[in-house]
Amino acid sequence: MWMVLLAAGGAFALSLGVRNTMGLYLSSLNTATGLGVASISLAFAFGQLWWGLTQPFAGAVADRIGAGRVIVTGLILIAIGTVITPYMTTTLGLIFSIGVLGAGGAGMAGPSVLMAASTRLMPASKRGISIGIVNAGGSFGQFAIAPVSIALTASIGWASSMQWMGLLVLLALPAAWLLRGNANAMASAAATAAGTRVLSTREVLALALKTPSYLLLAVGFLVCGFHVAFLATHLPGVVEACGMSPTIAGWALALVGLFNMFGSLAMGWAVGRWRMKSLLSLLYTVRGLGVLVFVLAPKTPAVMLIFAALMGLTFLSTVPPTVGLVAKMFGPANMAMLYGVLMLGHQLGGFLGAFLGGQVFALTGGYDWVWYMDLALAAAAALIHLPIREAPLARSVRPAAA
């Protein structure tokens, strides 16, 4: 059990940690290329979108041929994309390295595949806390890797620092062996013994898209993507716009990661004790109140770090109840694909958060209007989860043909 969680959590720590520290290089990329914040933000925004687009397909492939091969491919793509980014001098080049290779690899070695693999390998009674632990692994990666990135940049320059980040992610390769196997094979064996058959990927997807609760969950997760991508991409810029040093930006990102560890573990524990839709509504309410207080408060280093810690508590804490609701509604057989579809919606929101953050800054010289959008979306997300029905809505098998 613990080896599975260590493998999935460690792989997520490295893939998400490296990916979410890329925002620390935005200013250096702008200085080196002269492309402007808006153009570079487009590459980051495309990466948010592509990270989401890869996950349903990566999940479907992992469900069919096994998670291990998909994870290996993803880690190698992250490394290549990150290593070649300093050589890119055009917007299209940055879109290719950051948005296609790096983000695509992170999608293949990302939450839909890793969490589905751990869900498949864990007993049903332990799924909530196991998802929380794996999710906390991603947060620990951000907490641990952001200071390393800053230290490397100070000692060897931003370009070499970024390339070392790309090589660092390859340490997750051994996790692929521990997480090998696929959910469909296990489900098919059980179904054959019971005289039933597993629904095909197309049948399960069609069923999910006709389920109102699944669609509401997708809309809420889109809002989460907007919040998360805006912070991951533009929090260093927010710190700089407030007249603070890059060190504060690095520690703010690290605190987001650290406190998301606590939030993820707490949410994984809470999933088995309270209604998951109510937990999601609570998370968005807390997030909205945190943004409101930050907008009204004086911008000092202490306020910035406290805000980062509060955002960290809700940053990816939405994942355990979201994964839990999908597993409860549809079972584990097609988890990677179904959660991957939700991640696609999450990253559509992420694209908007990263892109609009750069556009608003370019037009107004600040981020105020993005915070206002953040507030409105948080309030909408808190309400939209309330009608969700928490019950098994469909079976993953049908009677076998005579």
What is the strand arrangement across the widest sheet? 1-2
Tally of helical segments: 18
What is the general shape?
globular
Number of strands: 2
The name of the CATH topology is Growth Hormone, Chain: A
Relative helix content: over 70%
Which value, in Å, is the CA radius of gyration?
20 Å
Q: Can you put this structure into words, describing what you see?
A:
Helix 13 runs parallel beside helix 15 (301-315) and helix 14 (276-296) runs antiparallel to helix 16 (319-330). The protein starts with a helix and ends with a strand. It has 18 helices and two strands. The radius of gyration is 20 Å and the shape is globular. A two-stranded antiparallel ribbon has the order 1-2. The protein has helices at residues 2-20, 26-33, 37-65, 67-84, 91-108, 111-121, 127-156, 158-168, 173-178, 183-194, 201-209, 212-241, 246-271, 276-296, 301-315, 319-330, 335-364, 368-384, and strands at residues 196-198, 397-399. The model is unreliable at 185-196 and 396-402 (pLDDT under 50). 80% of the residues lie in helices and 1% in strands. The longest helix has 30 residues, at 127-156. The chain has a single domain (2-181, 200-394), classed as Growth Hormone, Chain: A. The protein is an all-alpha fold.
Keywords:
single chain, 402 residues, mainly alpha, Growth Hormone, Chain: A, two-stranded antiparallel sheet, 18 helices, disordered C terminus
Structure described in brief:
With about 400 residues, the chain is mainly α.
